Structures are given as structure tokens and as C-alpha cells.
Predict the structure.
Amino acid sequence: MPHPGWTDFGFDGIGTRWEISTPAPLSGAHRRRLLDTVADYDAAWSRFRPDSLIAGAARQPGRYELPAEAAALGPLYETLYRLSGGAMTPLIGGSLEQLGYDANYSLRPGGPPLPAPPWDEVLHWQGTVLTTRAPVVIDVGAAGKGQLADMLSGVLRDGGVDEHFIDASGDLLNAGSAPVDVGLEHPYDRTRAIGVVSLGAGALCASAANRRAWGDGLHHVLDGTTGAPVRTVVASWAMAASAMTADALATALFFVDGSRLQQEFDCSWLAVHSDGHAEYSADFEGVLFA
Amino acid sequence: MNTSLRKSVFVGIAGLSLAGSAAGCAPGQASSPQATSAAPSAAAGAASYKDGTYSADGNYVSPNGNETVGVELTLAGGAVTGVKITPHPTNPNTRKFQGEFAGGIQSQIVGKKLDEIKVSKVAGSSLTSGGFNQAVEKIKSEARA
């Protein structure tokens, strides 16, 4: 827990472990509302579930009406698609499956890397409606965990629990009045940190190339223009007001210079490269151990 | 007796893991055996390995070309007595001087043990040490008596 005396509510959701800390224990009603929100999100967006809304788009082209949160995801992905020259795309699901990161977790490549289809050719994302012209495997994994953290924070606020801290397995959202000191996990050694940053109100999300690595050079951060894994940046962190934005930017840092992202987003960033050097924005000055 | 085996293997992500292990325990210096957490497991099954110094390279292709790191294990009496990790980056500062931005650059990250620093939360994605373990397995099979 982030502060002495706070209590934790832990649960599993969308394939990850969640821990929500609050000054006082959450009521049964609060917990139920949180878990319902998680279940709804999973039912809409999981590409690992044949019965999800998004799974339909993988079977046949058509018009898919998604829940309200789609309206925020679409423009975010469109901006990052543009900034990354197509490398960061929600259409990456097919490439992930090709490399073995499929619904059955076969973790066996099905063939050479498969580029994601160009957005303009197959997908029209307008608000909450997705219209597809071909079967597409949509994966919103780069922003979905963060967005769900924002939604859970909203559920708590609506329920009168203004002070809380959400830890989605290393992606963090602080909605408390006090800042929290957060260690930045060493990309290759989970028992170490490479620095400590003070997280005020807002989100801090991380992405690392070594997470969920399952073969020779095969990990889950893929370049949509080639369908192959990205190799130069090995770990990244982004801070932003919303966890959805921070989560997406942490992934975007694998494809786009942080300075470029800062021109479009109110954010702070840190990127560690495969040769061990780090680059960071002003808010991360003095954060790294020297 | 010192045998030296130089092997080039395509270990992909292993290269990254190895480079990181180096960064984790003060790069530029030879790592002490206990500094590399995976080392003791390499010694498991003891006595069945020939003494010697073994090395394997990990290669991976970055968008700017090949990058390589080497790992060298010294075995004596069935135990790992030395671990040396040598990054040989062919593109050492590929992106270092690309563009200008407010903020900074640090030439090497430095790891500190989490129990030595006081934090209640950690931001990151936990290690999959598969790459390093793969290289160690490779060396174990080379070194089997």
C-alpha cells in the first residue's frame, strides 16, 4: 500500500493483477461496482475471448458498436498511429497472433512477422462505432489497462471515495492528496530499481520489451509496419494526468522520440535503450541513480 | 586447465538480458559472481561440468544494424567462479544525439536493490529472464563433461 494505514483490495482482471488502496476498507457495494466494471471491459475488448465484442471483428467485417470508452481510445490510437508512422496500431492483433501471442498462448510463431494492415484500408473508427472492411484482430492492449484504471478511479470517485491509489501490476494511478515515491523497476532485474520518482496526482505507466518475452527476440512490443518486435528501446515510463494516456505513451516511446510526444501530449517520459543509456524529459531529471 | 569456447549463437532477447545484467551490477567492471542472480543456478548439478572459461555471444538486430553482447562464465570444481558480461555495441549511441529535447541523457542506468531504497510502489513490468537462462543453458550443455 502507498501510505501507512491504508488498506488494499486486490483482484485479477484483464489478465493482470490489480491492487486498489484506500484510506478505509471499501464496502461490498464499492467492490462489486469495481469488479463489474472490469468484467464489462473484458467482455468488450478482450481479443482472447471468442464472445467479446471485439472478437466479432476478427471473424467478419462489419459495423461494431462498442461501449462509451471507445470514443477516447480511437482518437488516442489515431494520433499515435500518425506519430509513429503506422508502427503503433490497434490492428496489431494479427501480428501478435502470427508470432504466437494468440488466444491459446501457443507462444509458437506461426510464420514470419506479419505487418498490420494499414488503418485507412480496413478500419473506420468513429466515436464508439468501428466499421471494418476486412476481418481484423483489434488489440487495445497498449492503452486498455490504463483506461480501465481511469474508469475504476471514476467508479471510486462516483462512490464518494476520492482518495485512492490504483496499482495495475506496475502501471500506477495516484488519486490521493499525497505524492507517492515510486521505484522504477530495472528492465532486467526485478529486484532492483534504476531510480525513484515522486508521483503526485496522476498516472505513471511502464512498458518493457522483456515483459512477456517468449522466444528468440520475440516479445510483445511489435512494430506495425513490419510486424516484428522493436529492439532499440528496452524500457519506458510515461507520466500523464490519465492512466490511459500514460499507458499508451509508454508503448509509443518504443517508436517515437519522447520530445515528439511532448509536442502533442502533456506528459513526462523516460526511455532506457538496449545499450543501457537513458533519455528523459525534465520531470525525470535527477530521478535516476548515478 | 582453461578451455575457451567462442560461440556465436542467435539468442535474440538474450542479448538484451545480458546487457541489462551488466548494467545492473555496475557496467564497465567485471561482475562478481554473486552479483548475477542467475549464476548459482548454472552451477546446479555441479561436478558434471569441465573447468574452464566459456563464452557465448548474443546477437540481435536493431533497426540500425547488429548489436552484440558477450557472456563469459568461468567454471571451477563444478561451480561458477566468475561471470563477465561484455557489451560490444556496434551502434553504441545510435539515438543519443538524435535531435534536441528538454531533459537529459544518462550514459548508463544503475540498479539499486529494492530493499536498499525506501519505496512502497514500483513502476515497471517484471523481468522474464528467459534470455539469460537460455544462454546459461547453452553454456551448460557445452560444458557438460
Remarks:
- Residues 7-284 of chain A form a domain with the T-fold fold (CATH 3.10.520.10).
